[in-house]
Amino acid sequence: MELAQVRLLVTDFPACYRFYADVLGLKPQSGAADGPYEKFSPTAGSAGIALQDRAMMAELLGELAESATGHRSLVVLRVDDLDGYCERITERGARLTHGPVPMTDRMRVAHLKDPEGNLVELQEWLLLRTDRA
Predict the structure, then answer these.
(1) Which Gene3D superfamilies does the record cross-reference, listed alphabetically (predicted)?
(2) Which has the closest alpha carbon to 37: 67, 57, 66?
């Protein structure tokens, strides 16, 4: 078994497309900026994030509400330079809601939301510190 993608159901597809492509800098697979589906890939790794028009999926399944309530997902992206990445994405319109701050002695994080309110966590993995007594 292989994880193909994490898919987010969204109501404002164009705004979410711009966020993942233009703000976070992920590469869109086909350029379908108006939907109803698009997969985004980071520069490294094989996992991807996809957007799916929520109304289309609700019609298919017949059980989804028009909009989600509460936090239902957390997209996690690992970056090498958290401070530098956060600076670049805020220049492109992102608004951090938390961080960058240490989460553990091995990881620093920052959080933001996409246009639909989905949480995005940016992680910087730190080397294990051997200089501690």
Answers:
(1) 2,3-Dihydroxybiphenyl 1,2-Dioxygenase, domain 1 (3.10.180.10)
(2) 57
Q: Cβ distance 96 to 87 under 8 Å?
A: no
CA distance 97 to 7: 22
Cα separation of 107 and 30, whole Å?
A: 33
For the segment 27-82, what is each residue's pLDDT rounded down to a tens digit? 999 999 999 999 998 887 778 899 989 888 788 777 766 666 666 677 889 899 99
Copy the structure tokens of residue 12: 């404002």
Parallel/antiparallel/unpaired status of strands 49-53 and 74-78: unpaired
pTM: 0.74
pLDDT (tens digit, 9 = 90+) per residue, 83-118? 999 999 999 999 999 999 998 888 899 999 999 888
